[in-house]
Amino acid sequence: MITSKDNDKIKYLLKLHTKKYRDQFNAFLVFGDHAIEEAQKQGYQLDFYTSNPDKPGEQISGQLMKLISLTETPMDILGVAKKKQEQPYSKRILMLDGIQDPGNMGTLIRSAVGFGFNTIIASLDSVDFYHERSIRATQGNLFYANLIKAPLKERILALKFLGYKIYVTSLSKAEDIKSVHPIEKCVVVLGNEGSGVSEAVLALADHRIKIKTSDIESLNVAMAGTIIMYEWQVSL
Residue range 206-232: average pLDDT? Predict the structure, then answer.
């Protein structure tokens, strides 16, 4: 059993709390039985660490598990997973321009998978898909998503060439989503929590869209994205 935080394996696990090292090692942490089960269903190979002697994996002390989990009530098992390579685009795509809150990111991933927007493309300045709070907020749906970080202008131009239409959320000169009928291959673009979609991306929009509301100017980005994807989900 590992009991010292100076152990090299523990140092490695702690480094994975930082995006720099998640990128360097191409790996991220997965906490708890449910998330691990969902990861395995999707073919992720994990290295396990546990404080429960009845579970498989490298045994570590409960104190170390709490340290790595960064929570008052830690799970008793975690896995280290390798990030998957980019997959072919889905017909419905969610694009995120400068999303900063991990909770919003996780909720959007969860909703996107639920409504058939399985490809999610985020700008390079968006919060990391693999932030612990993002992963928790996805409730295991992260493992079903095709996650891509990339410069958005380049991707939009490439997607247009492939026949996708770009629908960008905006508060000005925008159409109500109820009056818009998206084509089969569509991209919904959501913007930063404070400033919205950047002007450079807005300039590439085929349509500007909004959710009609009363008495409030705008909705939380995760809520707005969920509503749009629900309305425009692929018919089953």
Answer: 90
